[in-house]
Amino acid sequence: MLNQSELPELVHKNADNLYSITHIADFDGIGSAAMLAHYSKISTERIMFGNYSGEELARLRAEVEKAAPENSLVIFSDLAMNDSKIDTVAELLKMLKSSGNQIVWIDHHPWSEAAIAAASEYCDFIIAGENKDFCATELVFKHLYEPLGEDLEYGKRISEIAHLGDFNLKSEKYDKLLHSLAGAIAYMNYSRDISSLREMVAIVATGNLENEFISKKYSYYLAELEKNMQSFRESMRLYYANGIKIGVAYGKRIQSTQACGIISETLNSDISVYIDAERGKLHFRSKPGIDCSKLAATLGGGGHPQASGAEIEGVVLDETEIKKAVDRLIESAKDIYRGLPDAAPK
Questions:
Q1: Number of other residues whose CB lies within 10 A of the CB of residue 38
Q2: Contacting residues for 345 by C-beta, under 8 A, at least 6 apart
Q3: Domain assignments of the chain as residue spans, ordered by start
Q4: Taking residues 176-182, what's their average pLDDT?
């Protein structure tokens, strides 16, 4: 296992032989890859995207097999290893190591001891486990590039923007930009437009975030939002699990943080659950002091205590299946948050 102090030199020496595997769904994943593109000048063809579902991991493996990195440095960023997918991810890491690659994994999400042990078997360096102070973009900058002392203003700015977005913090300076970045990324995720996501990484690597490409993708997102908002609002329901108010709504093509924010504001819920019926994904947000990742874990998901996700695979989420998923969640919530006074109306 490498020492942390060896990382900057390792990345510098492998600048022409780097691959990035990063989170597809948000700006922290984009920002992490953009750090490599900016400082190490890696080509966008060497940037690959992953997520947590079996389908996404299968797609990622196929992409890695096609790229066929050999005797290279592969950097994973902003991706956790969920317990339900340990074997699948371990097989991917084993394949990479068998081709002589070195692997660095940098993440800030919660990991189980079993997941850390499985990844450590193949990684040459790993930062894993919940970090409440730094997002992945910040960690990539802090450990790989800041020690080199070059062009620090770029790294600090992109790190600040990624931190605000990932921890869902308000910023008068950047709020408008954060909305456009999140909406643009959400729109590209709807159709899994990998070429556009790579182009966005290249744009972020320049530091020019007030960009026509990003603005255009955001305008497409807003058009989709307008079409889908009414049915989303009509689907909202409030449930009670002991003392916890759980707001649930379903829809499609609405950015997850925005959707959960609307649910929370409308229903005054402690936990807000947005079900993306088009893609089979569930997004959880909760108020401080309430750990929604425990609820996401009942569906094989995970994440942060206040922001988590899960996925229902192999099922078309029509109204019948959505009701089944919600019923299961509420029953699970009654066990998870047991001991609180029942706040349900009589």
A1: 22
A2: 240
A3: 4-218, 235-336
A4: 95
* Distance from C-alpha of 157 to C-alpha of 143, rounded to nearest angstrom: 16
- Token representation of residue 146: 């800041």
DSSP string, 289-309: T--THHHHHTTT-EEETTEEE
Average pLDDT, the chain: 92
Q: Let me know the angle formed at the C-alpha of 24 by 191 and 291, rounded to the nearest 5 degrees.
A: 115
Was domain 235-336 assigned CATH 1.20.1280.290? no
CA-wise closest residue to 304 among 28, 44, 17: 28
Which 3 state secondary structure label does DSSP give 344? coil
- Compute the distance between CA of residue 241 and CA of residue 173 in angstroms, rounded to an integer: 38
Distance in Å from the first CA to the final CA of the chain = 58
Tell me whether residue 2 is exposed, middle or buried, using C-beta atoms within 10 angstroms of its C-beta: 0 to 12, 13 to 18, 19 or more. middle
Helices (H), the chain: 7-13, 27-39, 54-67, 86-98, 113-120, 136-140, 152-166, 175-190, 194-206, 212-234, 256-267, 293-297, 319-336
**What is the length of the chain?**
346
The 10s digit of each residue's pLDDT in 12-53 is 999 999 999 999 989 999 999 999 999 999 999 999 999 887
As a whole number of angstroms, the distance between CA 85 and CA 191 comes to 24
Q: Give the span between the Cα atoms of 188 and 170, in whole angstroms.
A: 24
Please name which of 215, 193, 207 lies closest in space to residue 38, comparing C-alpha atoms: 207
What pLDDT was estimated at residue 6?
92
Question: Which class is 4-218 in CATH?
Answer: alpha beta
For residue 92, the tally of other CB atoms under 10 A from its CB is 21
Query: What pLDDT was estimated at residue 44?
Result: 92
The pair of three-digit structure tokens given for residue 28, joined into one six-digit string: 């922290």
Q: What's the angle, vertex CA 153, arms to CA 149 and CA 159, rounded to 5?
A: 100
State the CB neighbour count (10 A cutoff) for residue 274.
28
Q: For residues 227 and 59, is the Cβ–Cβ distance under 8 A?
A: no
Contact by Cβ (8 Å): 108, 81: no
Q: Are strands 244-251 and 237-241 parallel, antiparallel or unpaired?
A: antiparallel
Residue at 172: amino acid letter: E
